[in-house]
Amino acid sequence: MIKDLESTVGLRLFDRTTRQTRLAPAGRDFLPSARKLVEDFARAIEGLREFQGVERGVLRIAGSPIYAGTLVPELAAQFSELHPGIRVHVVDALTEQVAAKVASGDADLGIAPERAVPAEVVQAQLFRDDVQLVCRPDHPLAAQDAVQWVEALRHPYVSLSPDYAMTMRADLAHFSESLTLEPETYVTFITTALALVKAGKGITAQPAHAEPLAAAYGLVVRPLHGPRIQRRICLLTPREREASPAAHAFLQFLARRFPQAA
Description:
By secondary structure, this protein is α/β, with parallel strands linked by helices. The protein contains ten helices and twelve strands. The chain folds into three domains: 2-47, Winged helix-like DNA-binding domain superfamily/Winged helix DNA-binding domain (Arc Repressor Mutant, subunit A); 54-127 and 232-261, 3-Layer(aba) Sandwich (D-Maltodextrin-Binding Protein, domain 2); 129-230, D-Maltodextrin-Binding Protein, domain 2 (3-Layer(aba) Sandwich), CATH 3.40.190. The model has no long low-confidence stretch (mean pLDDT 89). GO terms for molecular function: DNA binding; DNA-binding transcription factor activity.
C-alpha cells in the first residue's frame, strides 16, 4: 500500500535500507495528515456502528473549563444512567476552543459561555449563570451575606483572559461608569485564578457553577449585586452535520433538563 502511494504521488515517503526503514522528508511532512485521515476514518466507522441503535455508540461533549469540571460530568452521569450502552467522553477545552471542537467533529456538541462562533456551529442558550464573588473565608468581604461591586472593586482582582475582563468591564459600565475593573493579574485557567485567591493574591468573580471548584480550594462564594451580572451558558451543535443517535438522545435529555431553553 505504501509503495502504491509513493508511486501515485511520485515521492519517496520512506528511506529504506537492508537494516532499517525511516521516514523520508516527504513522509515526515505527510505524517500529521495521515494520522488525521486514520482518525477521521475510525470516527466514521464508529459513527456507522452508532446507527445500529441509540443504545450503542460514543458521545463526545466539549466543555469550557468551569463547566467541563462541574456541570458536564454531572450531565454525563445522569445521561449514562438512562443510556448505559453509550460511552460518554468529556472533551475539556478553553472557552474559545469549544466551538472549534464542535465544528471539526472532535466533539458532537459543546457547553460553554456565549461567544462568537463560526458559521458551521449553532449556539443556543441553555441557562444563565450568576457571577459571584470568590474569596478566602478570612477575607473581609466573606463576612457579608452579599457584596456590592463597588466594595469588591476596592480589592486586588484576579481575572481570567483580557477578553473575560473586557466583557466584565462592559457589564459594569452599563450599570455605572464609576465601576471600573482593573485586574491585578490575568491568568488563563480557572484553577490558576483560584490558587492565587487561596494564596491571598486577591479576589475573583466567577459563574455560580465554579462554586464546587472554589470549595475544593477552601474558598467561599458570595452573591454580587449592584449590578447583578449573569453569563449566558449555551449549547453548541454543528449546523450541517447530522446528529448521531447518541447525540440526538442527549439533546432530548437536555431539553428535559433545561425546559426553559426549548
